[in-house]
Amino acid sequence: MSSQTKPRNILLALFFAFFALLGMSPAQAHDELVSSDPAADASLQSTPQEITLTYSAEIMEIGNEVRVTNSAGDVVSEGDAKAEGRGVVQNIKSSEATDETYTVTWRVVSSDGHPIQGEYNFTVGKGAQADSSNSASESVAPAEAATDNADAKTGSTPLNIGIFAVAAFAVLGVLATVLAKNRKR
Predict the structure, then answer these.
(1) Pairing of β 100-109 and β 65-69
(2) Is 107 helix (H, G, I), strand (E, B) or coil?
(3) SS3 for 91?
(4) Higher pLDDT residue, 113 or 49?
(5) How many angstroms separate the CA atoms of 127 and 130, rounded?
(6) How far is CA 99 from the centre of its chain?
C-alpha cells in the first residue's frame, strides 16, 4: 500500500461519513400519538370521566392542551391537561348525554421540544350531528403551531442545527489534520 493510499482512504471514509450526516433526518424520530382512551372513532355507552393520550416518548410538562368539545361546540374538558411520562390526561365534565359526538383536539410538546397536534372523534350512544355554525375544531394550537410542525418535519431545530454544525466542524478538522500530515510527507 502506497503512502498516499491510506490518507486517501481516510479522506474518502470521512467524505462519505460527512454526507451520511447530511442525509440523517431527526424528523423521522418525532414523537407521535400511539393510542388514546377512548380511541378514535370509539362508540361508548357513557361519557368517560377523562381522556388519556399516550405518545411514543415522554411529553414535556409545558404548553400541553387538550380540548374536548361536544356536537354543539361546547367545551366539556375541565381543568388543565396533565402530562405524566408518555401520557397526557384531560378531565371531562360529567354529562348525562346519552347520544353525543365528542371531538378531542390536542397539542402537546414532544420530548424533542416540538409541538405536535391532532384531532379525533368518539361517540356516546348513537352520537349526535355537529352544529355547523359552531366550529368544534377551532384549533387548540394557534397558527404558528403549523409553522412549528413544518419545522419539526424538516428537523430544523436549533439543537439539530447545532449538532450538525459541531459534526461538520469535527469532520472538517479531521480532514484538515489528515491533509496537513499528508503535505509534510
Answers:
(1) antiparallel
(2) strand
(3) strand
(4) 49
(5) 9
(6) 33
Q: At residue 114, what is the residue type?
A: H
Give the residue with greater pLDDT, 18 vs 155: 18
Alpha helices in 1-142 (DSSP H): 5-23
DSSP 123: E
Tell me which residue has cell 442545527: 161
Question: Is 171 buried (19+), middle (13-18) or exposed (0-12) by CB count in 10 A?
Answer: middle
The dihedrals phi and psi of 144, each to the nearest 5 degrees, come to -65, -20
Residue 95 has a pLDDT of 84
Q: Is the pLDDT of residue 14 over 60?
A: yes
Q: Which three cell numbers stand for residue 134?
A: 359552531
Which amino acid appears at position 168 of this protein? A
Question: What are the distances in angstroms from CA 74 to CA 10, 71, 117, 137, 169?
Answer: 65, 7, 20, 11, 54
Residue 108's region, left for phi above 0, alpha for psi from -120 to 50, else beta, is beta
Q: Where are the alpha helices (DSSP H) in 24-139?
A: none
